[in-house]
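Re: How this chain folds, sequence and tokenised backbone to follow
How to read it: Take the token row as a discrete description of the fold.
Start of record: The labelled sequence and token lines come straight after this line.
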Amino acid sequence: MPNQMTRPACRADARDICGIYNQYVETTTISFEEEPVGVEEMERRIADITSTYPWLVVENEGRVIGYAYASAWKSRSAYRQTVETSVYVDRSARGKGIGRALYAELIPALRSLDLHAALGGIALPNEASVRLHEAFGFSKVGQLVEVGIKFGKRVDVGYWELLLCS
């Protein structure tokens, strides 16, 4: 896409990020949130996450069209070197390599932070997300059966893991 750049997210991106994320919340089982997220809440999330981990956006012609970030896997201290990654792409930009561009910068950033493992939790089925994670070396390590329910449908979640250090 012309004029495309990847950069760190900032609070000013919250409106565009909400626009992308809420498409998933309102129309898919990919996100298990059931209510749209407001701009102020997204600003808070961006501030919280970027105080510790990277959150990247792809911007095209002044508009955020995709984002990816890492967040703490669990709150217990023994999990301190493990993160969960998330990636979302605007429906108008899907299939154009935006997720790959984001992970191509996110994964090296995670490796530089003394982290050991990255996990991708994927609501199934979601072949595009599975392909993305596996393209970056994530391996499926498990599947939880019918752990979510959205739109009256029970949803499985698979977990893919990438060890960040050698």
Remarks:
- The beta strands are 4-8, 55-60, 63-72, 82-89, 117-124, 139-150, 153-163.
